[in-house]
Amino acid sequence: MLEKTRGLRDAVRNIDFVLIALTVAAAVFGIVMISSAGGSGSVRYVIVQTAALFVGLIGIIVISILDYDYLARLSKYIFAACVLLLALVLIPGIGSERNGARSWFDLGVVSFQPAELVKIGFVITFSKQLAETGKGLNEPKNLCKVLLQPVILCVLMLLQPDFGTVIVFVMMAVAMLFMAKLSYKYILGGFAAMAAACPLAWFFLLKPYQKDRIINLFHPENDPTGSGFQVIQSRTAVGSGKLTGMGLYNGASRYNNLLPERHTDFIYAVVCEELGMIGGIAVIVLLSAIIIRCLYIGINARNSEGLYICAGVAAMLAFQSFENIGMCIGLFPITGITLPFFSYGGSSLATTMLAVGLALNVRYRYKKINF
């Protein structure tokens, strides 16, 4: 009986209540902002996002029960499922096209981007591969095998095309490779190769509207009613909030309806407009706390696989946040990347919480629990 009591005590002690509290706080904060940004559809958006929050919490419980080592043993099947999802979405009639990219499954009642689920799968499968490769990672033959996995996934996403998500995947892979102690010469060489490939991408990969987004990032006034419109309106919303904002539900863009995609891509601009710089900083602090907590769990994981999982989750959250906030304040081109926990999207919130669930899984298994 005493042993069971100790086992239960250890089980409770291994739960990271801090990360759970931060995650729920961010999701609830996001729902409040969506209720303000959603306009006439805010009630439906709040219901969907709240339902996604509860689904995500259930998902966290389920994914925490399964030992991450067990999930890693299924990595071949998980990777095959990821490839299948990204291939199916490219087929007309199966995949749905939005904003020039065929990257959605529309099931009528619900629609979702398979790339969101693939992020979770990639963290598991790439962590397993890095752990198996171990110290042999810096051998060219082994490195080529390791890189094959993210390359296949990124090529499939480029065919949609979804450049924003590809960047997130690349950064996730780089962060995990860094934690696996990949030689700096390979990392620097990789960034140099990407820089050299930029002219090729500009002339042969990017479509005219994508080039316009990049050009008008620096000169939005060149096309104030076209490709520069979103940049101008987002900057205006962010700047108009000043220090304390116009007040919740009192943002000017709520009434003039000039800021597009207020509840999704540009939710951070709404936060700054209504809650000011204080609200904007609060969002950054909250997201940073979640990311740092994930890294802390990874550094203290029982094995390298746990470290890589947490690094992948932290990188996913960090670069999505960096890219979205940079987009809203006019530092990066508009890519359609959502802000984790805050942007509207049931499947996005649920899968983001699943990613946090992976980190909680690692934390829960710091040490063996005996009942």
TrEMBL record:
First-listed, main subcellular location of the protein, grouped into a coarse class: membrane
UniProt keyword list: Cell membrane, Cell shape, Cell wall biogenesis/degradation, Glycosyltransferase, Membrane, Peptidoglycan synthesis, Transferase, Transmembrane, Transmembrane helix
TM spans (from-to): 12-34, 46-65, 77-95, 147-179, 186-205, 275-296, 308-335, 341-362
GO BP annotations, alphabetical order: cell division; cell wall organization; peptidoglycan biosynthetic process; regulation of cell shape
Coiled-coil ranges from the UniProt annotation: none
Entry's Gene Ontology cellular component terms: cell division site; plasma membrane
Membrane topology qualifier: Multi-pass membrane protein
Pfam families in UniProt: FTSW_RODA_SPOVE
GO MF terms, alphabetically ordered: glycosyltransferase activity; lipid-linked peptidoglycan transporter activity
Subcellular location: Membrane
Protein name: Rod shape-determining protein RodA
Species: Candidatus Monoglobus merdigallinarum
